[in-house]
Amino acid sequence: MIDVQEIDLSAVREQVDAVLEDFLTDKARAAAGRGHPVEVVDTLRDFLAAGGKRIRALLCVVGWHAGGGREDRVAALRVAASLELFVAFALIHDDIMDDSLTRRGRPAVHRTLRARLGQSVRAERLGAGGALLVGNLALIWAQELLHTAPLSFERRRAVHALYDAMLEEVMYGQYLDVMGAGPDDDVDAALQIVRYKTATATVERPLQLGAAVAGADDTTLNLCTALGLPLGEAFQIRDDLLDVFGSTDGACAPGLGDLREGKRTVLLALGLRAATPAQQRRLRHLVGRADLDEHGAAEVRAILEAAGARQRTEHMITSRYEQVLRVLDAAALSPAASRALHGLAVTATQYTS
Question: Which of 121, 118, 114 is nearest to 100 (CA)?
């Protein structure tokens, strides 16, 4: 293993962004040469540039370090960059399904494309269709970038198997999120959506992918699971909590998106389970209304607070974070990888991506 004192995550982020920029520049050049609409590449480039902490890419490279990465850093960076294109696909499609107004402080891709076509019903349909295709290309290009990672046959097979498993898990999770049936106060069902849709793809699989690039054994891959699932769950539960209540420091404002959508979150399930019958009726009347305003949202927040749902959700995040720390303390990782994972655990459980 390389003797690394510290993993410079800022440098890793810049290197991943450089891989993405070079890849998309080549795609723009090829599109122009073939007469394809270059605006597709520009739309995706703008989406990637709008923000995001690149946490999946960072975890991939940290996983590579944890797995004993040596001379194959180029491969690790290309797999990490591929994950960011995959995330772009997932978020663009998620925004279409939720008809989200914004993403990372900017209009969602389908809203941007719709605005170019006017305000007709046809423009709305075509904007969503255009965004769907941009997302599809992001997924295709994620696969293409993955295939360019210089790996031996055995390591390529291991990496691709993990990547395929991640894709499948996310699709199942998204399906459960969209079509989920059953009681809306079922905390276990809400956690299942979190596990499939987010926990595996956000932390577990990126860590495993980086470790697999380095040729890690099953013990290290299992360690990635022991770290990744609780941390990924905490990450999504925090994200859902922030969407409703915002952050205590004011950096993240409370929103209306999840409440208007009626998203089946752990927070809402806990609230419905603990609320009085009268409070349950109000929650079910308000949550899921497309016309929910700030006054109604304030009432929802007050009920969730009174029912203890916010406090219980915070406890779930804390317990998972502490579980991650226990696993890290017992793991035989390099000091650099251990410190990086401690830092990323804080980032994942306190802030959004």
Answer: 114
What is the average pLDDT across 55-67? 95
Most confident segment among 3-12, 29-38, 65-74, 247-256:
29-38
Residues facing 181 on adjacent strands: none
**Three-class secondary structure of residue 18 per DSSP:** helix
Residue 1 falls inside a structural domain: no
Q: Which amino acid is at 226?
A: A
**Mode of pairing for the β-strands spanning 102-103 and 106-107:** antiparallel
Q: Which two tokens stand for residue 6?
A: 């510290």
Say which residue, 127 or 248, is predicted with more confidence: 127
Instruction: Tell me which residue has tokens 């904007």.
Output: 127
Which residues lie below 8 Å from residue 276, measured CB to CB, with a gap of 6+?
307
Give domain status of residue 39, yes or no. Answer: yes
Q: Which residue in 331, 15, 320 sits closest to 198, CA to CA?
A: 320
Q: Is 325 strand, coil or helix?
A: helix
Whether the CB-CB separation of 80 and 61 falls below 8 Å is answered with: yes
Is 3 a domain residue? no
Structure tokens at 53: 């902490």
DSSP state of 252: S
| Residue 44 forms part of a structural domain | yes
* 106: helix, strand or coil: strand
- pLDDT band (50, 70, 90) for residue 326: very high
- Beta-carbon count within 10 A of 7 CB: 21
Q: Could you tell me the CATH number of the domain that includes residue 253?
A: 1.10.600.10
Residue 267 φ then ψ, to 5°: -55, -50
> What DSSP element (H or E) covers 102?
strand 102-103
Structural domain count, the chain: 1
Contacts of 320 (CB under 8 A, 6+ apart): 230, 231, 233, 234, 237, 349
Instruction: Specify the higher pLDDT residue, 250 or 155.
Output: 155
Return all residues near 222 (Cβ < 8 A) that are at least 6 apart: none
* Percent of residues, the chain, with pLDDT higher than 70: 97
Q: Is 104 within 8 Å of 50 (Cβ atoms)?
A: yes
Domain range enclosing 219: 9-350
